[in-house]
Structures are given as C-alpha cells and as structure tokens.
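Request from the bench team (R.T.):
"We need a structural guess for the complex before ordering more flavin-adenine dinucleotide. Sequence and SMILES attached. Just send the tokens back."

Command: build protein-flavin-adenine dinucleotide structure.
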Amino acid sequence: MGRRVAIIGAGWAGLAAAVTLVDQGIAVEVFEASRHLGGRARRLTIEGLELDNGQHILIGAYAETLRLVRAVGVDPAGAFLRLPLELRTASGFRLRAASLPPPFHLLVGLLRAEGIGFGDRIATVRLVAAHRRRAYRLARDDSVQAWLQRHRQPDTVRDALWTPLCTAALNTPAVRASAQVFLNVLRDTIDGDRGASDLLLPRIDLSALFPEPAARRVESLGGVVRLGLAVRRLEREPQGFRLDSGEERFSHVIVACAPQHAGPLLATLSGLEPLATRLARIEYEPIHTCYLQYPEQVALPFPMLGFQGGLAQWAFDRGSLSGQRGLIACVLSGAGAHESLAQDELAAALHAELADALPGLPAPRWARVIAEKRATFSCRVGLERPPNATSIPNLVLAGDYTASDYPATLEAAVRSGGAAARLALA
Ligand SMILES: Cc1cc2nc3c(=O)[nH]c(=O)nc-3n(C[C@H](O)[C@H](O)[C@H](O)COP(=O)(O)OP(=O)(O)OC[C@H]3O[C@@H](n4cnc5c(N)ncnc54)[C@H](O)[C@@H]3O)c2cc1C
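Reply to R.T.: structure attached below.
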C-alpha cells in the first residue's frame, strides 16, 4: 500500500501536518468534526463582523508558525501588526524593548521600565541575568509563584510584570503554572533572534491567517479536506488503518484533536488504553473574550493595554488592528469569579473597568462574550506531555498538548503538526 495519511482534526496542528505532507507529495485526507476549519483559533461572525473565537497574540519567536503562514501564501507583513515588545498597563506600568540587539533590548528595557521603583527594576534584571547564566534551566520545576518568592521578586514587579506575563503566556495562574515552561518562553523572547520578542497582533481573522489558505493548499496538491465528519473509531489491520469501518485504508493516522477528544478515539484501539487514561488526566483552563462595540471614535491609547486587579487582563483595540473601529476585545485568561456572571453582567463589569481607564467612555452599543471553557491545557508543574509517536507504529499524535517546551500556543500546535508529519514520512 502506498503512503496515505488520515489526519483527524483540522485545527492548526492537523493542518500544519497536512501542508507538510502534501508538500512532500504524500496523499492526505483531513477529517474535521465541525463545519469549520481552525479548531480553537478560528473566525466567528458576530453582528456582521468577522471576529475570532478568542483574541490571539503571537510573538516573533513563533518561527514555525510564521514559516507555515508564508508557505500557504499569506504575507506576515500584511497579516500582522508587528510591534517591538511593549507592555503597558492602564495603571502606568510600561516596559518597552530598547533599540538594541538581544538580549540588551530587554535588559535595558527592564532597567528603564516605568511605573516601578529603581530597586524593583534591578531585582528584575538580576533575576533574568541569573537565569541566562543557567541557560534558563531549573534544577527542579516549581510553580511560577514559588519561583518568584524564592528569587525575592518584589510584589510590585510580580503584580505588574511577572504574573500578567505568566497568565498571558501559559494561560495558567502563577500559583500552579510551571516555572520551567515560563522560562522557556522567556529564553526565546530575551535571547532569541532579533525580532523574537516582537508582538504580532493579527490584522486579519484567524481562519484567513492559516487554516483556510492551508486547506486550499492541501486541496490544490491533491489532498482532501472533509468538514462535518467526526471520526469515532479507529481500526487496525495488517494493511493499515480504517476509520469508522469505512472502505478506505490509510497507511498512517495522525490524531490531531485536543486531548479530551483524542483520548476516547485512541481508546478504540487495543493497546492504547494507558495513553487514553493519561490524556483523560489532563486539566484545562478557560479563556473568555468579551467584544464591546463602542462608537467609532473610541480607541485605546495602545493596541494592547494591560489591566491589574480587575477582571480583564488585557484589552485590544480592534480598530488599530483590523480597522474595526470602536471595537474593544477584553481577554480574561483562566478561571475566576467572572465565570459565574451572566453575559450582560460580565460585559457591564468590563465596561466599568475600561471606563476607569478611559474617562468619558460612552456605553457600548453591543457586547458579546465568548467563553472557551477548555481553551488550553493547564500548564502545571510536572505535567508530562505525551510524545508524538505512540506505541502503535504509524499512529501519531499532533496537538498543542504533545511534548514540547512551549505552552499551549499556535506555535506548539504547528510544531507538533510538523513533527507528526515527519514521523509519518520517516
Ligand atoms: C480563546 C483562546 C485564546 C487563545 N489565545 C492564544 C494566543 O494568544 N496565542 C497563542 O499562541 N495561542 C492561543 N490560544 C491557544 C491556541 O488557539 C491553541 O493552542 C491551538 O489553536 C490548538 O490547536 P490544535 O490544532 O492543537 O487543537 P484544536 O484547535 O483543538 O484542533 C483540534 C480539531 O480537531 C477536531 N476534532 C476533535 N475531535 C474530532 C473527531 N473525532 N473527528 C474529527 N475532528 C475532530 C476539532 O473540531 C478541532 O477542529 C488560545 C486559545 C483560545 C481558545
């Protein structure tokens, strides 16, 4: 039997695998349960506007994502607003990368940070310098909170810088987030290539950024993408695999679903029950995105503004990103009191937080909350993530949760897709 690969799931991981394989001349068939491409990073249409299921932010270090976006014909220069790293909060904290080569751009940026005292800035630079010397490796993983305490980071720096960064990067509260994974992200941001720390804010919707052009590329090279087709059962035969007792046989299967869907599917094959049990133990963190549409003249002082001590962690000005003037997207990462609020209560609370930062803000015309209850896996201390290869030859996993030194991100997803494809090619 020639090589013929079934890919289950058309999120960013599954489509990255599909593009990698068709580019090598391999026949692929992608099966996607829902009617849309992109999984957890996709377009939604609300009030006639093309929005996303959640505001996403990328950084320049997402090299594989940028490579693949380019490979499917999207020019990152137009698709992203690229800004040198700058973190600003409504309460006056400001960190801006200096115009210097890495790592001095951020070390000097930290020394010049506004809104925290001189001693706090020195403590921050000391922490970073100490971990650079150790190549950002911890002898033993710990929670970000315990790690900050051990390194005597002042409360002001913890609250203004480290905790918001941890929540944004790992979508896991500092009290349980893995310090090692956080350091991996810091490593690539501080010591990566020039531009690795840049913020990349999508100017186009997430489906147009990669999933749709990727599916077009797959189809143009002879692959098949089937939407609205959930695979429920895998069968193994001497000649390969069958899906849901169908006629077609595949030499390889890449299971590119999130763990809560991959587990039950893998459990249909004998021998994979331990892997399915392991996936069932993975825990998740939610993300809520609230879009608030204000009159067109409303804008934030910066495209991405941080908030402390309230419900929202970040607010994004969609007017300066995608021309959707007056539209603000508030992001609430992780679990919290907001989960028990009704949509209109949450929107009202977020409007009040925005109004504190933007005096004179008029009432929004409409607001919509999108709750992704299992937005990402909880990136906890000691979490063991499964490798791409399984104990069954030619049955491979892809997804942001597979073994990687990155948290649940688009970059982890596309890297896993590439790794799964390389296993299928081997
Ligand atoms: C609100 C939100 C905000 C986020 N913000 C950021 C951010 O700012 N930056 C960042 O880098 N990352 C962010 N992420 C994380 C990022 O979106 C994910 O890491 C990434 O999309 C995961 O891709 P994936 O392909 O691994 O999984 P998924 O996107 O979950 O794809 C799996 C696909 O498999 C399909 N499927 C499941 N079961 C079956 C079946 N039986 N048969 C067929 N198909 C099936 C699903 O429908 C889905 O399309 C965010 C996520 C969310 C939800």
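Two things stood out. The longest strand covers residues 366-377. The chain has 15 helices and 19 strands.
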